[in-house]
Structure formats: structure tokens, C-alpha cells
């Protein structure tokens, strides 16, 4: 008897609640409004910048917080540069700025106004591959290929640095002037900022060595 009463009472409460909600006695839940602080305001202040990417000039209006990586991918449409860790640890987003390699995920676009930027798309000349690109293919310096654009951009800069005589942490004699020989250990050190989750490091080292000889 008590069980049936409780069931009947529960059913009555359900019906009353539904009717009350329908006629507006119980206020309906409203969607939370976004906060109006400056970090979420859609019309936040923007800056006008000019980027020269792969020989082409782009005039853009960007927010100060937008990274160079996002500008390249989302605004300019050059998706060869990859998003990896977002913390400057994997190197997948490596591009060349005024000839030097940087992690574009850590770089703000407004910092590179009027800079010369080269991405993986800008290395080849038409259908002719850059020597480093060709060497990566020949030496199986990739597997899934996700890290490869950053690896190749980094390799181009690493070779240029060695030719300019820039020492690394493993250079035997930092007092020696002139080009640094790119031995296997030098290549591993200079490419250590670019990670390959597939583990294609043997092919990468061979590709960088062959590419450096092609450019010598």
C-alpha cells in the first residue's frame, strides 16, 4: 500500500512540475552569457602587419596574441607547417625567418612584421625539389611525414649554420674558423630540437648529410 502511494505521489509531482513549467511558474533555464572581459571580446584590438612569405607579400589585420603558426595555417592557408606540441618542444612547426629557424608556435605574428618567412612550401622551385627534400625522400627520412616539414626547414638552417662556422655543443674545437664539418654527431645535435615520433632518425641523419654535400 505504501509503495503504491509513493508511486502515485511521485507521478503527481511529475505532472504538476511539467504543467508549472509550461505556464511559466518555474523559470526556464537560460543559456549562460559569455563574459565581457577583454580576453574573450571578439572585437579585441588588432594590428596591421605585412608578412613576406615564400616571396609573396600579405597584408593582414591580426590580434596581438595570434601566433605565426596560426597565421600561416589559418589566414594564409599554408598548412605544410604543422601543429605539434604547441610548446616549442617538438619542432613540427619550424619555419625560416630571415634565414633563421624558429618555432612558429611560440612566435607572435606581430613580432615579424615585414620579415622574410620561408615555409616548407617555399623551398622547392616549381616541380624541382630542394636538395634537402630530395635527400629526405631518397634516404627514407620520414615515415608518417607529420614532422617532416619542420625537419626539412630545420635541416636547411642547420646546414647554413655549419657552413657559416657556427659551433654547436659538440663541436670539437670552437676556436677553429670556417665551416664546421657535419659529422653524424654534429647533425644529431643540431637537429635535436626536431622530434620524430616514428623514429626515422637514421634516415634523417643520412638525408641531412647528403643534402649538405649537395649544397656545398
UniProtKB/TrEMBL annotation:
InterPro entries: 2Fe-2S-bd, 2Fe-2S-bd_dom_sf, 2Fe-2S_ferredoxin-like_sf, 2Fe-2S_ferredoxin-type, 2Fe2S_fd_BS, Aldehyde_Oxdr_Iron-Sulfur, Beta-grasp_dom_sf
Residues in 2Fe-2S ferredoxin-type domain copies: 47-123
Pathway in which this enzyme or protein is active: Alkaloid degradation; nicotine degradation
UniProt GO molecular function: 2 iron, 2 sulfur cluster binding; metal ion binding; oxidoreductase activity, acting on the aldehyde or oxo group of donors
Keywords: 2Fe-2S, Iron, Iron-sulfur, Metal-binding, Oxidoreductase, Signal
Signal peptide (from-to): 1-22
Protein name per its UniProtKB record: Aerobic-type carbon monoxide dehydrogenase, small subunit CoxS/CutS-like protein
Amino acid at each position: 500500500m505504501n509503495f503504491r502511494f509513493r508511486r502515485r505521489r511521485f507521478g503527481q509531482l511529475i505532472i504538476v512540475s511539467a504543467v508549472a513549467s509550461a505556464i511559466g511558474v518555474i523559470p526556464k533555464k537560460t543559456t549562460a552569457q559569455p563574459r565581457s572581459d577583454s580576453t574573450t571580446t571578439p572585437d579585441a584590438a588588432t594590428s596591421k602587419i605585412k608578412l613576406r612569405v615564400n616571396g609573396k607579400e600579405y597584408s593582414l589585420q591580426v590580434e596581438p596574441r595570434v601566433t605565426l603558426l596560426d597565421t600561416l595555417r589559418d589566414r594564409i592557408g599554408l598548412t605544410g607547417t604543422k601543429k605539434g606540441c604547441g610548446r616549442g618542444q617538438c619542432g613540427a612547426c619550424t619555419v625560416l625567418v630571415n634565414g633563421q629557424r624558429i618555432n612558429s608556435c611560440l612566435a607572435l605574428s606581430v613580432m615579424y612584421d615585414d620579415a622574410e618567412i620561408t615555409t616548407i612550401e617555399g623551398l622547392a622551385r616549381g616541380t624541382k625539389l630542394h636538395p634537402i627534400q630530395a635527400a629526405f625522400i631518397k634516404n627514407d627520412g620520414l615515415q608518417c611525414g607529420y614532422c617532416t616539414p619542420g625537419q626539412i626547414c630545420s635541416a636547411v638552417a642547420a646546414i647554413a649554420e655549419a657552413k657559416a662556422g657556427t659551433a654547436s655543443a659538440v663541436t670539437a674545437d670552437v676556436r677553429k674558423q670556417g665551416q664546421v664539418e657535419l659529422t653524424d654527431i654534429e647533425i644529431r645535435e643540431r637537429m635535436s630540437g626536431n622530434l620524430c615520433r616514428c623514429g626515422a632518425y637514421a634516415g634523417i641523419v643520412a638525408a641531412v648529410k647528403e643534402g649538405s654535400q649537395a649544397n656545398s
